[in-house]
TrEMBL record:
UniProt membrane topology term: Multi-pass membrane protein
Subcellular location: Membrane
Any coiled-coil regions, as ranges: none
Native organism: hydrothermal vent metagenome
Descriptive protein name: Glutathione-regulated potassium-efflux system protein KefB
Length: 541
């Protein structure tokens, strides 16, 4: 067994090192690792997955706990429309359509159809939020709407897990089962809430006073695992107890430290869970049914994209609606959890579970590639919307001006600074909502794709005093830099990056560009503030 563990760790490391070069999430690497060790080393999934099952399940426990930590009532109220209206409609309509497809077209049992519909209605919170944060798209309109829908999906995981527990109980009437479940749920919540209200704060306060990190981490692990075991003993899943514990701790002062300390445990145990999922992939079924898997993926993608697009089209516009639907087209990691639990409870046929698990994994593999090119995909589908005649500024009126490429968070700050100096500038932004807001404020911002020659020439780039690339997406930044080098090789171009390593790479690629590191700006600001205080101190003395 030790040899298998060592081999698994080695393969997982190598696979993920390769996949990260292609920006494929580590989740896929762990699943691939499980599949590789099972297929090539003839390991019986029935034998070895049982040994991993308990540990693997606690990966989901820690995931649900961290979701509970983020479950803030205040945050929900701020995003109530995105969460409860759009999120509720997306999950409800998706479940309804997938249920009809499963029940009538594939002639599945009612319980089976409900479980499959619930799993397919969810998207990948782990992958989508990670990429939206790294791309800095989380603050864009489509990012906020995606986040709202994902929050509702995460909330729905709890009742879905409860539903599976109810379905797996035989020989009891539905009414008595619901009543006993409700009583047990109230008891669980009151016990954990009472502990959180009267014991948790003074307990954690004493732990923190010890100034021992290992005691603090051990205490949190006790709370998470203890809550999970309590929930399990009352007939619920381990995950539900962890979720409630996370909600309770989120109300304390220790929320952020708890989250930071538990992330390594969560990620490690999640890795074990996804390895166990990979170990249960039956390659003979996948190869035999590969055509069906691709067809199902296409069907599920069309259904989810259509529902989200139609929900958002009127209020958000077609570009935001399409971006949001493309961001959430995939099937998520909780679908794997649901099929795993349903399969172990004999609520779904193993062959169906295998086919749907393979479909989920394939959709997750495709997600990073779609999200990283989402603007290009939308442009390709809807066409690149050029500025109207009223938005374009005549070339004859533009000379010795500054061109700002991008009007996101950084672009706004740059334009505000240029306004304060009375500088003549024009900004180009591809987010229509940002452009409308800027124009309402009287800013000189036009709508367009800064990577298009026609847009750059329309603002007379050849007569510009300088060009500032105000984009924080590294891939986009390189692309724009290349285009400027071809269109206006003599232009004075200024780029801001976050790390010195990025500057070194860009200096090789664009030796004539001025590249500013964000750390230097911060350091200069701190020194200026210190000097100002020192001078003030000298004169007051």
């Amino acid at each position: 067994m030790l040899e298998i563990i060592v081999l698994t760790i080695f393969i997982a490391t190598i696979v993920n090192l390769v996949l990260t070069r292609f920006h494929i999430p580590t989740i896929i690497g762990y699943i691939a690792t499980g599949a590789i060790i099972t297929y090539f080393f003839q390991l019986s999934s029935a034998t070895h997955s049982k040994e991993l099952e308990t540990i693997a399940e606690f990966g989901i426990v820690f995931l649900m706990f961290t979701i509970g930590l983020e479950f803030s009532i205040r945050h929900l109220m701020e995003m109530r429309k995105e969460v409860f209206l759009y999120g509720g409609l997306q999950v409800g309509l998706s479940m309804f359509i997938f249920y009809l497809i499963g029940f009538y077209h594939f002639e599945m049992l009612a319980k089976e159809s409900i479980i499959v519909a619930a799993a397919l209605s969810l998207s990948s919170t782990a992958i989508v939020l990670k990429i939206l944060n790294s791309n800095r798209d989380i603050d864009k309109e489509y990012g906020k709407r995606s986040l709202g829908i994902l929050i509702f999906q995460d909330i729905m995981v709890v009742p879905i897990l409860l539903m599976i527990s109810i379905f797996s109980t035989d020989g009891v009437s539905l009414g008595s089962l619901l009543f006993s479940t409700l009583v047990d749920a109230v008891v669980l919540f009151l016990l954990l809430w009472g502990f959180g209200k009267y014991i948790l704060d003074p307990f954690l306060s004493e732990v923190v006073k010890s100034n021992l990190d290992e005691i603090f981490i051990g205490s949190i692990l006790f709370l998470v695992v203890g809550s999970s075991i309590l929930a399990h003993n009352l007939g619920f899943s381990y995950s539900l107890g962890a979720f409630i514990a996370g909600m309770i701790i989120s109300e304390t002062h220790y929320k952020h430290q708890v989250e930071a300390d538990l992330i390594p445990f969560r990620d490690l145990l999640l890795g074990v869970f996804f390895i166990s999922v990979g170990m249960q992939i039956d390659f003979s079924i996948v190869v035999d049914k590969f055509g069906m898997i691709l067809s199902l993926l296409l069907l599920f993608t069309i259904v989810k994209i259509s529902i989200i697009f139609l929900l958002l089209y009127k209020k958000a516009g077609k570009r935001v609606a399409l971006k949001t639907s493309l961001a959430l087209f995939q099937l998520g990691e909780f679908g794997l959890v649901i099929f795993e639990l349903a399969n172990s409870s004999n609520l779904i046929e193993p062959t169906i579970s295998q086919i749907l698990t393979a479909t989920i994994i394939l959709s997750m593999i495709l997600t990073p590639f779609v999200l990283r090119k989402i603007s290009s995909v939308v442009d390709m589908i809807l066409g690149d919307e050029l500025p109207t005649d009223g938005q374009l500024v005549k070339q004859s009126r533009l000379k010795d001006h500054i061109i700002v490429l991008g009007y996101g968070r950084l672009g706004r700050k740059i334009c505000s600074k240029l306004d304060s100096y009375g500088a003549k500038y024009i900004a180009i932004e591809s987010n229509y909502h940002n452009v409308k807001e800027a124009q309402k404020e009287g800013k000189s911002v036009i709508f367009g794709n800064a990577g298009k020659r026609s847009i750059l020439e329309s603002v007379n780039i050849h007569q510009a005093a300088s060009v500032i690339i105000a984009m924080e997406n590294s891939e986009r930044l390189h692309l724009i830099g290349d285009i400027l080098l071809k269109i206006a090789p003599t232009a004075r171009v200024i780029i801001k990056v976050n790390k010195f390593q990025e500057r070194e790479l860009l200096q090789v690629e664009f030796p004539n560009y001025e590249i500013v590191v964000g750390v230097e700006q911060m350091a200069q600001g701190m020194v200026d503030a210190m000097m100002q205080c020192s001078i003030s101190h000298i004169y007051t003395d």
